[in-house]
Amino acid sequence: MNTILIGIAGGTGSGKTTLTRHLKEHFGKDVTVIGHDSYYKRQVGRTYEERAKVNYDHPNAFDTDLLIRHLQELKAGEADTVIIAGMGGELMLRILRDGAHMYDSVKHYVLSPQSELSVFRHGLEKLGISILEEQMLMDEGKYYVILHAAPGSMHYEQEYEYRYGSDLIRKQDPVLREFLERELAQGEELLAHLSRMQTEGAQKRAESLRQELNETKEAYHALQGTD
């Protein structure tokens, strides 16, 4: 059996811990989490005062070379699963394009873009990667979408399916319903505010917002089964 190494990286608040926890909950004992926090450099021989001055958030505080050696020892065979999370959709697409030489061995993708979801789903279609299933969750006030994909073709008929996820709409995902209701409420409030402004910029933004809200309403009606 191949050992699959999955690197989850991203900035503060990008969802690294949330995604890792859900993957562990989903796959159970088949997943072992190796945290970078387990590789702080040893402080043997230093006084308490010297240790107190160490910046444990700085990359130099970690023995990353030791982590790499341990991961290399674990690796056996080519990767057949790719997981990318904690980044914008455009950046994730660029990473996938740059990794095209691995396509022959990759059988599964687990992807969690933080933004530009419509662009990302269109990009997967062009790359020949098909979304098999989507999950949406809310954790600590933030919404996350996790895509399970595989090599293959896909195409959606409606633009709102690229924006909000065809699978989520089809299975009437309750978290997506909550998200759409929030989007509609906030959008209508902003539209009312813009409508009271007389500047050209405000009017252009209002027109753009109306189009976005129409697309959101289409998705909401489809999710409710009333389209």
Kindly describe this structure:
This protein is an alpha+beta fold and 227 residues long. Helices cover 47% and strands 15% of the residues. The protein has a four-stranded mixed β-sheet, with helices on both faces. Helix 4 runs parallel beside helix 5. The model has no long low-confidence stretch (mean pLDDT 83).
Q: Care to give the gist of this entry?
A:
The chain has 227 residues and is an alpha+beta fold. It contains 9 helices and 4 strands, in the order αααβαβαββαααα.
> What is the gyration radius calculated from CA atoms?
22 Å
Spans of at least 5 consecutive residues with low confidence: none
Sketch the major β-sheet.
Answer: 4 strands, mixed
Count the beta strands: 4
Structural class: alpha+beta
Broad shape: globular
Instruction: Report strand order across the widest sheet.
Output: 1-2-4-3
Q: Portion of residues in helices?
A: 40-55%
Strand content: 5-15%
The average pLDDT value, as a whole number, equals 83
Features:
single chain, 227 residues, alpha+beta, 4-stranded mixed beta sheet, 4 strands, globular
Q: What's the layout of helices and strands?
A:
Elements (H helix, E strand, L loop, with lengths): L15 H12 L20 H5 L11 H11 L6 E7 L1 H10 L9 E6 L3 H11 L1 E11 L2 E10 L7 H6 L1 H5 L3 H22 L4 H25 L3
Parallel strand pairs: 1-2
Antiparallel strand pairs: 2-4, 3-4
